[in-house]
Design brief:
Radius of gyration: 11 Å
CATH architecture: Roll
CATH class: Mainly Beta
Number of strands: 6
Strand order of the largest sheet: 1-6-2-3-4-5
Order of helices and strands: EEHEEEHE
Shape: globular
Strand content: 35-45%
Structural class: alpha+beta
CATH superfamily: Ferrous iron transport protein A (FeoA)
Number of helices: 2
Helix content: 10-25%
Largest sheet: 6 strands, antiparallel
Distance between the termini: 6 Å
Length: about 80
């Protein structure tokens, strides 16, 4: 992503092999709490392992996680 320019976009837009930082998590309180427990907190580094049709596999805090497109759209990264 264009971190130098301050652009923020959904995690689903990140490319395979890219490492991004969580800028914020959108959605209801329960979803935000769940994603925070998985490591998706402001400033956390997320490495995109692979993606297909909007679904994405990432590494966050040493764990490999799969997210569906709907969830990946809620995680804003820079």
């Amino acid at each position: 992503m264009a971190e130098a320019t301050g652009c923020v976009a959904p995690l689903s837009m990140a490319r395979t092999g890219e490492t991004v930082r969580v800028a914020r998590v959108r959605g209801g309180e329960e979803l935000r709490r769940h994603l925070a427990s998985l490591g998706f907190v402001d400033g956390a580094e997320v490495h995109v392992v692979s993606q297909a049709v909007g679904n994405i596999i990432v590494m966050v805090k040493g764990a490999r996680l799969g997210l569906d497109k709907k969830t990946a759209l809620k995680i804003m990264v820079a």
